[in-house]
């Protein structure tokens, strides 16, 4: 339990009260105003666009604390830099195109390009992808640590508070609360970095007290490891939040500029959080639970009042993302599922369906958070299964030369999900390397070329077997290969099981390991 003074507790309670009051400010929308409820009338200006875009990006703050405590600047190089790059590319190549469509969601775009079946399949993946469970779990965990209560009460109270104002104000409530939380999160982390600097000193203190490698960008990590994280960051292209906010912007240029400005603010906030993690490691080198590194540093160096502000900043960082994910999930349920499946599409009912979605999203998030008990496990499971079936199709939806037919799009989603599930079941049998590498290097259409090139440079055959068998068959790169194969050859690529080609090619077995 945290050692909080009366003023600290008061600040935290006032923060939550302010969030609820601000969230309730928008007037209650009428049933014929669904565009206002879902996207704030598509009139979000640059100021609010930037505030909500920045604030809703940092829900995994406890993970950032653990990563920076353990690995130093490698945290920024893997958890920050790749996302700046892909956010920059999204701003340049997608933001204006997304806004020009004047649609509401990714599945709606899929329906126009790939048809109803592909849209419904994508809806299922996006519903899982925008589950608020990880962020409910983090807030529940913080509440249990700070106030020494059962985590389930933290989950229920947070979900109840969030649903109250989202049901009333919709996306506008999300924007208002996120904007307030933006200032709280920056203020809290600015104060703790300044406090650490004046307490311990600057760079010389860190150089003296940090492990070797903590102040190097790559932390002596292998190029393969770094590549993994850069490919994971590709999920930015399929992020429903980016698409939602681009659709809500007053115009495409606002969306583009907003994302570019957001990148600068993300870089500053990453400087603050990474610095906090570095000071925590230098001052408290033997923490039993690095997930609590930020809180441990606050307990050591912050006095009454500032400690309460910092805890409020922690809550703000998570709650801003939770708001957004609850509403994204609610929109998926209300608009993409209930409304789309209704035979008689009465647009005046969209707000009602979305409000139902808010409640369903909150309840499902509580259940998932309670039974998973691990934020990383939720992210890893949902991300590994859902993202691959969407990423190539999202690109194709906005760039015609990458577009495929509806049947092939549906096949890609199904095959990628099934192969991901197979990989998930069988992954413990293999030497694990993050699977997203294979999305781009493991396409069935280039299998033969890979083998020829590898043999020509005398690469160890065991390594080739490992990649081609354990990832191309048991992971979702199969879908990426089919997609690229369709584009290159304009026909379906048949995947031939590589089992009976003899020992000189790819024998099928489960005990391969990479050897020197």
Summarize the amount of helix as a percent range. Answer: over 70%
**Mean pLDDT, as a whole number?**
80
Along the chain, the helix and strand elements come as HHHHHHHHHHHHHHHHHHHHHHHHHH
The best one-word shape is globular
Report a brief summary of the structure.
With 516 residues, the protein is mainly alpha-helical. The protein contains 26 helices and no strands.
Describe the structure.
The chain is mostly helical and 516 residues long. It is built from 26 helices and no strands. Helix 10 packs antiparallel against helix 20 (375-386) and helix 20 runs antiparallel to helix 22 (406-426). The radius of gyration is 24 Å and the shape is globular.
Break the fold down into its secondary structure elements and pairings.
Layout: H1 6-23, H2 34-39, H3 46-55, H4 61-71, H5 74-79, H6 81-93, H7 95-101, H8 106-114, H9 116-129, H10 133-147, H11 151-169, H12 171-200, H13 203-209, H14 223-232, H15 240-248, H16 252-283, H17 293-301, H18 306-341, H19 350-372, H20 375-386, H21 388-398, H22 406-426, H23 437-441, H24 447-456, H25 461-471, H26 477-489
């Amino acid at each position: 339990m945290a050692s909080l003074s009366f003023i600290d507790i008061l600040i935290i309670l006032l923060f939550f009260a302010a969030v609820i009051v601000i969230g309730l400010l928008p007037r209650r929308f009428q049933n014929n105003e669904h565009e206002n409820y879902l996207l704030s009338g598509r009139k979000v200006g640059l100021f609010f666009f930037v505030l909500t875009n920045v604030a809703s990006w940092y829900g995994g703050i406890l993970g950032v604390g653990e990563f920076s405590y353990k690995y130093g600047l490698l945290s920024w190089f893997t958890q920050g830099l790749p996302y700046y790059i892909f956010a920059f590319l999204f701003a340049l190549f997608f933001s204006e195109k997304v806004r020009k469509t004047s649609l509401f969601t990714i599945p709606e775009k899929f329906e126009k390009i790939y048809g109803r079946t592909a849209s419904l399949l994508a809806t299922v993946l996006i519903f899982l992808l925008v589950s608020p469970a990880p962020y409910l779990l983090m807030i529940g965990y913080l509440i249990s640590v700070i106030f020494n209560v059962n985590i389930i009460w933290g989950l229920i109270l947070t979900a109840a508070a969030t649903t109250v104002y989202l049901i009333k104000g919709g996306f506008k409530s999300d924007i208002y609360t996120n904007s307030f939380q933006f200032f709280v999160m920056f203020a809290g982390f600015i104060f703790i970095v300044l406090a650490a600097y004046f307490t311990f000193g600057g760079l010389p203190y860190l150089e003296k007290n940090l492990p070797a490698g903590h102040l190097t960008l790559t932390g002596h990590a292998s190029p393969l490891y770094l590549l993994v994280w850069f490919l994971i960051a590709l999920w930015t292209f399929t992020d429903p939040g980016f698409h939602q906010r681009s659709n809500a912007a007053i115009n495409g240029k606002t969306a583009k500029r907003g994302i570019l400005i957001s990148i600068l603010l993300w870089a500053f906030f990453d400087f603050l959080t990474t610095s906090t993690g570095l000071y925590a490691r230098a001052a408290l080198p033997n923490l039993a639970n690095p997930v609590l590194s930020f809180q441990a540093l606050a307990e050591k160096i912050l006095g009454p009042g500032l400690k309460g502000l910092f805890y409020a900043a922690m809550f703000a960082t998570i709650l801003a993302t939770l708001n957004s994910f609850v509403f994204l999930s609610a929109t998926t349920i209300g608009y993409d599922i209930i409304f789309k499946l209704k035979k008689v599409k009465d647009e005046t009912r969209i707000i009602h369906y979305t409000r139902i979605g808010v409640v369903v999203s909150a309840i499902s998030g509580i259940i998932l958070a309670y039974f998973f008990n691990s934020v990383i496990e939720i992210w890893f499971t949902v991300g590994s299964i859902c993202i691959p079936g969407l990423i190539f199709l999202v690109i194709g939806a906005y760039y015609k030369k990458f577009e495929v037919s509806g049947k092939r799009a549906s096949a890609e989603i199904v095959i990628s999900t099934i192969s991901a599930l197979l990989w998930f079941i069988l992954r413990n049998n293999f030497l694990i390397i993050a699977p997203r590498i294979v999305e781009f290097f493991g396409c069935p259409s280039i299998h033969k070329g890979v083998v020829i090139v590898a043999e020509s440079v005398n690469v160890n055959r065991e390594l080739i077997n490992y990649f081609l068998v354990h990832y191309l068959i048991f992971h979702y790169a199969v879908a990426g290969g089919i997609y690229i194969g369709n584009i290159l050859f304009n026909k379906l690529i048949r995947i031939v099981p590589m089992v009976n080609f003899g020992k000189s090619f790819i024998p099928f077995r489960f005990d391969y390991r990479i050897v020197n």
